Amino acid sequence: MHTTSTFIDRLNAAWTTRNSLLCVGLDPDPAKFPAHLSGRPDAIFEFCKAIVDATADLACAFKPQIAYFAARRAEDQLEALIAHIRERHPEVPVILDAKRGDIGSTAEQYAVEAFERYRADAVTVNPYMGRDSIEPYLAWADRGVILLCRTSNPGGSDLQFLDVGGERLFERVARLAAGEWNHTGQLALVVGATFPAEIARVRELTGDMPLLVPGIGAQGGDVEATVKAGRSSAGSGLMINSSRAILYAGKGEDFAQAARAVALATRDAINRYR
User: Any catalytic annotation for residue 63?
Assistant: First the structure.
């Protein structure tokens, strides 16, 4: 697959060609689907496919969250969805949001799941178990590995703000990810939009490393503060994720058009501050 380009290359190209830092999160909840999809065995695939097709030209990445598929025995629909993105919108990278975290042979299996089974361009990984829990993913030279660093949830501070030898734990993760852990150049970081000051600190520690930023839209993060804190020297460097605000913008049969309108407005709002 992508023998001539890495995840980072593809992301850079998407930022440029789409003039977009918007990542569209795919968190399908059938309870929120329009009535005309109710009861269909392939409802999750059809819903997400419609969202993807309506927003692909506005997005720098798509981010399906695996739990929303696996909880409903819809992994086959996730496989079909990513195959559809690859076929119809091959220039938009796919991030499998799985937040895996394990060591050795188990991490190798999670890498096979993300990169062979689902054919994702990148996967989110929990770095709590250290460097050897990340290495198995780096064997896939063309893929990206996005480490949790400063998460958008209130409880993130329970551990991420602990002092570890004169710096906070999230700062240590950022420094390791930008330095010795990133010997292959495949790493990126998750930094929540709910904490602009910490986004700025992570940017300071990591240079132009890509940052995946959840927390705008339904979680209430400030777009202007996020972009100003996190943009790279080139005015990109961010995958700013919005899920629910886009997915459930409309309740009727025109839900995909409603999603497109919100995605367009979000992309343009982000671009105002680049």
Answer: no
> Do 95 and 62 touch, CB atoms closer than 8 A?
yes
pLDDT averaged per 10 residues, the chain (length 274): 77 97 98 96 98 98 98 98 98 98 96 98 97 97 98 93 97 98 97 92 97 81 92 96 96 98 96 94
Set 32, 49, 99, 251: catalytic member: 99
C-alpha dihedral sign at 227, 228, 230, 236? positive
- pTM reported for the whole predicted model: 0.96
What's the start-to-end Cα distance of the chain, in Å? 32
DSSP string, 131-163: GGGTHHHHTSTTSEEEEEEE-SSGGGHHHHT-B
Amino acid in the structure at residue 213: V
Torsion of CA 146, 152, 156, 160, to 10 degrees: 50
User: Is residue 240 a contact partner of residue 226, using CB atoms and an 8 Å limit?
Assistant: yes
Look at residues 230, 233, 232 and name the one whose alpha carbon lies nearest to residue 215.
Answer: 230
